[in-house]
Specification:
Elements (H helix, E strand, L loop, with lengths): L13 E6 L5 E6 L4 E7 L4 E7 L7 E6 L7 E6 L4 E10 L6 E11 L6 E6 L7 E6 L3 E6 L10 E7 L18 E6 L8 E6 L3 E7 L5 E9 L6 E4 L7 E7 L4 E9 L5 E10 L5
Antiparallel strand pairs: 1-2, 2-3, 3-4, 5-6, 6-7, 7-8, 9-10, 10-11, 11-12, 13-14, 14-15, 15-16, 17-18, 18-19, 19-20
Length: 279
Amino acid sequence: MQFTQLASPHEAGVNDVAFDYYGKRLASCSSDKRIKIYDFIEKSREWDIHDISRAHDGVIWRLSWAHPEFGQILASCSEDQTVHIYEEQESVSTRSDGKESKWLRKAQLLDSQKAVKDVKFAPRHDGLKLAAASAEGVVRIYTADDIFNLNIWTLQDTLKIYPVENVAGGDSESSEHGLTCCSWNDSPFEPAKLVLGGYAKRVSIWTCDSANKWKQECVLEESEFVIHDVAWAPSMGRTYHLIASANRTNVVTVHRVKRLNNGSVEPGSNERLECPSPV
């Protein structure tokens, strides 16, 4: 396996990296409040770098690419309590490929009252839609009703996953830090589903029912530690789902989730994978 060290590094720790749909474009975000876009140039076999300086007013936690059917669209979320939507604009330049990219901020979503810790675009079949998970224990679902006007996003749903009050007393399942991560189910044959994790130390699946109401469907894991990341594997025609969760120990848990005939799911077996260092 070959490795390439990309030039023009961030000035602070990198918090997330995300490949686009085709794997030829990479985005990174950092505590330095910048986003960098790396384009792989086939002819030179090198990476061309674009910098979005001052992309947020706070630490940038996560990034997500929209499906390319909707254009080159990137979402970011931050400690500054916002979600930003960026779109690539192309103009003629003197570069060898004749194009120069410029990333423009098209929208700023300001509904959160605490840091937004994760953002994920929905699968293509659900349209141009994204989920934003916040430290207030809330997931907000936004939609772009007109994909040709990315300046306007509608807050479609607000999911109160768990509250953030009464933490000091220790008699609540809530957490002052709320949610940390989310991931969509990409299957077009099932209702929209999200897997969520956070400071409540559990991994749970939420689903949108036939009345377009979101509800918790099942809990996959009750952990001793904060859940810091979750990932829902592509369905690939399997009769079950695979969901991975990590909690910054040296163990990753892979959850095998049963798929039922009515489109619902239920917990199955778990497998714990040990890593040489904390995840």
